[in-house]
Amino acid sequence: MQSGVTVASMAPGVLALGVGVVLAVAGFVPWVAARYRRRGRMSAGSAILAFSVLVYALALLAYTMLPLPAEPADMCVSGGKAPQTRLFGFLSNIERHGGYHGPASLLNNWAIAQVLLNVVLFIPLGMFVRHARRHRRAAGGLAGAAVAGFLVSLLVECTQVTGGWFVYPCAYRQFDVDDLLVNTFGALCGAFAAPLVAVVSSRRDDPGEVGQPVTAGRRLAGMLSDVLLVALAGGVLSAVVDTVAVAAGGDVRAGGSGTTSYLVALLPAFGQLACIGVTGRTAGEAVVRLRPARMPTAGRAVLRWTLGIGGWSILAQADSMVSLLAYPLAVVTVVSVWTTRGHRGLAYASAGLEVQDVRSAAA
């Protein structure tokens, strides 16, 4: 595994963070839905932990696989990267680059920095694995983290020595037997630091069918789910309309201009209105398992839709200066989650409705 203390070495981490944000947004709704069905609750700590695991997995993949060779044929003329199979070979490598002469050597000696970076790279893995197994005995958690570190490192090294499982005709990164030792040690160090993860996110028992309180975070998670679902559905519909227009031999924008484009973009919002009319709640509220205490009348349903996801969608898709009104509506809606009784929010309060957990309503 090759590491370096350079700006270029930071690129995989930046890439992992960017891709992680995109995947986190795409997976937010299903993750929240699964969380509320399994645990009945979602905390900021659990969200931070899930995002950290996602970004770490991407960073581990990026740092061990990237950059890909630009000219693999030329590189493989000399056989590619020769494997390093001598255990503790990194010690002689450190001496060859000047040895250890105080703390400054940690940065000045490239061989020392490489070993330390490999240890640091696997510390989060040990922390996450030990946290997942924290209800077991301490020895089992430590052993699980060490085994996970060794197996993940072995997978990485085998991928490197096979040229990405024979995608490339030779190894474009070096297999190093010392990495198995160093990475496993890093995962074991992370296992001892696992209690820090518990400070951020604690795993609680499944509440079963016991109703949970309506919190501001839960209401905001439902609202964000509504926005993401409407945006995703609108994007899919627009893509379908454009595809049909191209298939019919027209311009790619023929089906997505003017009134047609506006109506297509609003179809998901009207779908939310139908959802409220039939079930009493929006799709986002279904994700976080909330519903009104009583089924709203037609007038109340339209009012809460207008002051909620429906009105916001209409304003956001409008042309010219009208679209700017979507921003104050969003701000008022978010602030009202804290200022209204029971965290009802603007739409619920204006329609004279109460919001509660689905399981509380069933009970």
UniProtKB/TrEMBL annotation:
Coiled-coil residues: none
Residues spanning the membrane: 12-34, 46-66, 110-129, 141-168, 180-200, 220-241, 261-280, 301-318, 324-340
Keyword Acyltransferase: no
Boundaries of every VanZ-like domain copy: 54-196
Keywords recorded for this protein, A-Z: Membrane, Transmembrane, Transmembrane helix
Entries under InterPro entries matching the protein: Teicoplanin_resist-assoc, VanZ-like
PANTHER family: INTEGRAL MEMBRANE PROTEIN, MEMBRANE PROTEIN-RELATED
Name of this protein: Glycopeptide antibiotics resistance protein
Annotated organism of origin: Actinoplanes xinjiangensis
